[in-house]
Amino acid sequence: MSSSQTSHSLAFRVMRLCRPTLHVDTPLLVDPSDLLVGEDIYDDPMAASHLPRLLGSLKFQPSGDAADLGYRNRFLLNDSTDSMGLSGLLLLPQAFGAIYLGETFCSYISINNSSNFEVRDITIKAEIQTEKQRILLLDTSKSAVESIRAGGRYDFIVEHDVKELGAHTLVCTAHYNDGDGERKYLPQFFKFNVANPLSVRTKIRVVKDTTFIEACIENHTKSNLYMDQVEFEPAQNWSAAKLKADEHSSDENSTARETFRPPVLIRSGGGIQNYLYQLKSSSQSSDQIKVEGNVLGKLQITWRTNLGEPGRLQTQQILGAVIVRKEIDLQVVRLPATISLGRSFSVHIDLLNLTERELGPFEVSLSPDDLPEERAIMINGLQKMVLPKVEAFGSIDFHLNLVAMKLGVQKITGIRIYEYKEGKTYNPLPDMEVFVDLE
Amino acid sequence: MEQDSVDSGAQIDPLSNPFASLDSLSPDLSSLNDLAMRGAWRSILEKVSRSRSLDLLKQPHHHLTYLSFNVLALSKLRRFADANSELESLQDLDGSDYRYETYPKVYPGRSGSMVPFSLRWIHCIIPIKLGRRNEGLDRLYKLLDLVREKLEERKSNSREESLREWKRRELLVINTIIGDHLIHKEFSVCLDLIRNLLSGDCLGLDAFLLSELGYIQLQIGDLDGAKGSFSQVEGIADKEKSIKLMNLVSRNKALIYLVGKDYVSAVREYEECMERDHTDAVAINNKAICLMYLRDLSDSIKVLENSLERVPTVTLNETLVVNLCSMYELAYVNHAEIKKTLSNWIARVAPDDFDSSCTRI
C-alpha cells in the first residue's frame, strides 16, 4: 500500500470480498442436568419424577423480554446440535487470503474523506495490472462523483476473473477538487499474488483401438476442493466417456443414502484425485490410416470451496500418441503344448487384412536384423514362405515350421511380412515367449 | 408429557423432597445458577472459594457440583490450565469416592455416579483448548464409549428418564466430536457421523441437525447437497409450525440466496426472521453481512449497532463484534477511536467470559 507524497483528503480502503465463512467454534454450553446434578441421579425414581420439571424450568423459561434472559444463551444449550458450534453466524473475510487462478477476485473499495471539508468532482478508476495487461474494472470519468462530504464515503465493489498467474496490482486512482479547490491526484496500489490452485498430470494409454486418458489432479490450495465438474472435452474426431469405479452399495439405509451423495473432495495441500476417460475415434473411415491429428482434447475443471466460491480452469490441449492403424495383423491361433530342443514344431497363424482393399501376395520370413547365432528359434526348412493374396478385410491361415535352438524360456521374435504389390514390410506379431524343454 | 410426574410431585411434602428447588439440590445452587445466567463467572469463582473456606459444603455431591461450576467458570474465562488442575484434583472420576453407594448414610438406597456429566465433557474439551487436540479427541471418543455403555445398561432395565438423559448426552458428545472435526476441516468424518445420526434411532431426521448438515455441505461447496438437506428441513417445518423452525427455514433459504449472490432476497428472508423474533441474532448478523455485499456498508453497520443497543444480551457475541470491527476498519479512517468506544461499551455490559480481543485494538 502506498500513496503519493502530498497530503490527501481522500483515502482508499479495501477489503477483499471473498465469500463470508460460517463461524465454527466449540462452545462451552451445558445442559442443566449435566451441571447441577450427578450423572446417574436419574436412576433414582424420585429424582426421575421430579428433576425434569425443576431443571426443565431453567431451560425453557417463558420467553419474556430479552433483557430478562440475561446471557443464558452463552451458558445453556438449547439443542444438542448447538454443541457442534456451527451456529450459522457468518463471518466477514478476516484476511486477504490466497487467491488462485480460475477464481474471481472481488473487492469492496471505500474512498473516505477524512478532511473537514467537502471534496468535489471526483473521478475514480480501479484497474487490475498484471505483467501482461491492465484491465479496467471501474471508471467514473464519464459521470464523476459530485461530492463527498467531510467524513463521508463513496463505496464500490469490483470483480475480476483471475486468468493470469503471478503478481497483480489493484490500482485505485482518484482525481478530485480539494476543499481549497486544488485539483489533486491520488493513486493507491494494493498488491497480491495469484498462485496455481492445482496441477493436472495426464497419462495416455492405447489399448487396441481405444485410447485411455488418466488425469491426476493435485490440489495445491489451502482449502479442500469440491470438484463440481471434471470433464474431458474431446477434439473433433473423438468421443469421450468418463469411467468410474463401481460404487460400493454396502450402505443399505435409504434415507441416509438419499441425504448423502459422498462428495468428491480433494484435500487441501497436496490431495489428489484420479479420473479416467475412454476415448474413441469417431471417424469411421479407415482410409485414414496413419495418424489422426494427435490432439485429443482438453480437460474442463470446475470446483467450489467455501459457501460455493467457484473456480474454473481448463488444461491446454492434450496430445495423444501417434496412432498407426494396422493394415496387417498376425494372430497366433495355436502353439504346441510342448516344444523340445532341436525338434521342429508348427505354429498356426492367421494373417488378417485390415484394409478395404486386396493385399498380397506376401512373403513370410525372419527379420534379417538379428544375428543368426543369437537366434533361439528359427524357421525350419525354407526360410521364406509365400502366401497368396488376401481380399479386403479377409484373412488367411498358415502353419509356420520353427525349430528351437536353445533351452529354457525363449522368444519367438522377428517374424516379418513383406507385401509384394505395395512393397511394404510389416512386423505385426508381438514377441511371444515359449518354454523350450529337453526331449 | 410429564403430567404424571408433576402430579406425584405435588403429593410429596416439599420439605422432605430433595428435588423441590435448586437450593435443595446443593446449598445456594440457585444463586450460582443465576450468576452463570448473567455471565458473572468471576463472581462464581469467588462464591465457590468462599463456600469452600466457610465449610458450607456438607455432602460429597455438593463438592462435585461446586467444583463443576468452578471448572466451567475457569474454562469460560479461558483459564484452561487452572481448570485442568482443578479437574486433575479429582483424580479418577470413576473412583468409588464419587459414587452414591459409598455413602449409604447420606444417600440411602441410591447408587451410581454423582459426577456431573459436564465435568467429563470439559475434561475432553480442555486439552483441545490447550492445543493438545489429539488427547482431547481421544477423550471424546472414549467418553462416547462410556455413554453408550451407560445407555445399554439403561435400555435393559427400562429407566426411561435416565435413558433419555444418556441419549441426550450421546448426542452432545457426537456433536462435539463433529464440531472438532469441522474446525479441522475433516469434512468426510463429519458427514459420516451426521449420516449415522440421521439414520440412527437416537435422533433420526431432525430439523436442526439437517440444517447443520446443510451448513457443512455449503462449507464444502456442495450446493446441491445443501439444497437437498434444507428442503428436508422445510418438510419437517411444514408439519410442525413453530417460530423457531420457521426462522430456521428462512435462514437456510437466505444462505442459499447468498451463495447464489442474490443478497437482496437473502436480506428479505432475514428481515422476516427478525419480524417473527427480534432476538434472532443469527439473522441480524447475517443480514448485516448481506448488506455489506450489497455495497451498503452504512446500513450494515447500523443493523449491528442497533441490535447491540436493543438486545445486547442475545446479540453481543464475538463473531458479531469481529464483523462490526471489520466494517469500522473499512468505513472510517479513524476506526481506532470508534473501536475504542465500542470496546468501552462492551467492557460495561459484556459478560465476564466475553473475549474482548475480538475488537482487535
* pLDDT < 50 stretches of chain B: 1-10
Order of helices and strands of chain B: HHHHHHHHHHHHHHHHHHH
Name the structural class of chain B. Answer: mainly alpha
Cα-based radius of gyration of chain B, to the nearest Å = 23 Å
Distance between the termini of chain B: 51 Å
Whole-Å distance between the termini of chain A? 89 Å
Q: What shape does the CA trace of chain B take?
A: globular
Main sheet properties of chain B: none
Distinct helical segment count of chain A: 3
Report the average pLDDT across residues of chain B. 92
Domain Trafficking protein particle complex subunit 13 C-terminal (chain A): 336-427
Protein name (chain A): Trafficking protein particle complex subunit 13
InterPro entries (chain A): TRAPPC13, TRAPPC13_C, TRAPPC13_M, TRAPPC13_N
Domain Trafficking protein particle complex subunit 13 middle (chain A): 198-318
Describe this structure in words.
With about 450 residues, chain A is mainly β. Chain A has 3 helices and 31 strands. In chain A, strands 4, 6, 7, 8, 10 and 11 form a 6-stranded mixed β-sheet that branches. The longest helix of chain A is centred in the N-terminal third of the chain and has 15 residues. Chain B is mainly α and about 350 residues long. Chain B has a domain of about 160 residues: Alpha Horseshoe (Serine Threonine Protein Phosphatase 5, Tetratricopeptide repeat), CATH 1.25.40. Chain B is about 70% helix and about 0% strand. Chains A and B meet through strand 1, strand 2, helix 1, helix 2 and strand 3 of A and helix 1, helix 3, helix 5, helix 7 and helix 9 of B.
